[in-house]
Amino acid sequence: MKRQIFTEDHEAFRQTVRTFLAKEVEPHYEQWEKDGIVSREAWLAAGRQGLLGLDVPEEYGGGGTGDFRYAAVLTEEFSRAGVAGLALGLHNDIIGPYLTSLATDEQKQRWLPGFCSGEIVTAIAMTEPGAGSDLQGIRTSAEDAGDHWVLNGAKTFISNGILADLVIVVARTKPEGGAKGLSLLVVERGMAGFERGRNLDKIGQKSQDTAELFFNDVHVPKENLLGELHGAFIHLMTNLAQERLAIAVGAVAGAEAILEQTTRYVKEREAFGRPLARLQHVRFEIAELATECAVTRSFLDRCIEEHAKGELDAAHASMAKWWSTELQKRLTDRCLQLHGGYGYMNEFPVARAYTDGRIQTIYGGTTEIMKEIVGRSILD
Predict the structure, then answer these.
(1) Alpha-carbon Rg of the chain, whole angstroms?
(2) 345 CB contacts (<8 Å, ≥6 apart)?
(3) Which single residue of 6, 200, 250, 286 could bond 79 by disulfide (Cβ 3.0 to 4.6 Å)?
(4) Distance set, CA 56 to CA 86, 99, 110, 305, 364 (Å)
(5) Of residues 314, 329, 166, the one with CA closest to residue 243
(6) What does the angle CA 340 – CA 205 – CA 254 come to, to the nearest 5 degrees?
(7) Cα dist. 79→99, 306, 313, 357 in Å?
(8) Dihedral of the CA atoms 183, 99, 8, 257 (nearest 10)?
């Protein structure tokens, strides 16, 4: 069925994204995968093309649109292309809202122009070796030293961790208070005591640099407090709905792309003297997967519409996130099976999709956490 949520302007933007991918990303992607990191030139090219800071006010060099549908188009096209390494979605949809909604005027002047041009690559450091979804377990701490904070601790699994010039760090600024004793501090490249560990060796998304970060007596100016003191919990909860929706958008687009590729493959590949597509089992598999995608797409597009109007709640964002990512995981596995031995070869897109997509049910809140949120909304 024809989708109803996009206008001609959105579709024109989709063509812009596809042109960018064809020119600036796809020719270089294999090398980035080998290097374990994308080039900074790609970030600058994205800035020149207007793909960074879509909802940042124009006065800072952004797109000046709060319409999430543009972000959805960008995420869909990157996911369809199978190029997870250049993490524009993380930069725009996850970190951008913290800067646009929480930063002071002075902070916006300092950070947003570079954010939009690609000169400043961003990351958010929440997860620690001993604390993931449970914010109360965060041990990274910041001690008030008058005109600055003294930051100590370690973070891990930080996307953009190697390239990042600006890192929003979740730190404990009040020993007591559990999750309500946390604040957001912005650490910038070059601050003494800020060190990067390994570029972590993952099973997928090889070109997306994911790192350990260490903070050893880092002096963070008071001017780099983002949002309210001890207010990180509320700030994080406010922005998580968009993060989870963005992950869901990428998951469904990725699933649809692999299904399309697999459909072409089974029409061409022969077994027992006829195309695989002539076998009833294969036809049933494709029918089931196509139906699951269509049903999920209908719900997700409704969520995109609701979020564009500012009306998507945490429970429905969590539903979208866990259902879409579990579909992606299940579909990719079944499509790889339909490819047979060729599906296990890296030269086939389904192989990379299998490893790249596996993280989707984990980051941004695991499937189990999503179900807990949904369950609480119904039963508490």
Answers:
(1) 21
(2) 351
(3) 250
(4) 19, 9, 14, 20, 23
(5) 314
(6) 60
(7) 25, 22, 24, 10
(8) -50
Instruction: Put residue 295 in one of left, alpha, beta given phi > 0 → left and psi -120 to 50 → alpha.
Output: alpha
CA-nearest of 158, 87, 172 to 125 is 158
Structure tokens at 84: 């997870």
CB of 334 closer than 8 Å to CB of 281 = no
> pLDDT for 151-177, tens place per residue?
999 999 999 999 999 999 999 999 887
Q: Which of 178, 176, 62, 182 is nearest to 117 (CA)?
A: 62
Q: What pLDDT, in 10s, does the model give residues 242-262? A: 999 999 999 999 999 999 999
* Cα→Cα distances 330→207, 227, 253, 351, Å: 24, 39, 14, 14
The predicted pLDDT at position 342 comes to 96
Are residues 293 and 256 in contact, defined by beta-carbon separation less than 8 angstroms? yes
**Phi and psi, residue 171, nearest 5°:** -135, 155
Residue type, 242: Q
* Closest-CA residue to 66 (of 92, 104, 105, 88): 92
The catalytic residue positions are 243
Sign of CA dihedral 368, 369, 375, 380: positive
Question: Residue 133's pLDDT band (boundaries 50, 70, 90)?
Answer: confident
Place of tokens 């990351």: 123
Q: What is the pLDDT of residue 216?
A: 98
Q: Is the pLDDT assigned to residue 299 strictly greater than 90?
A: yes
Q: Which amino acid is at 302?
A: R
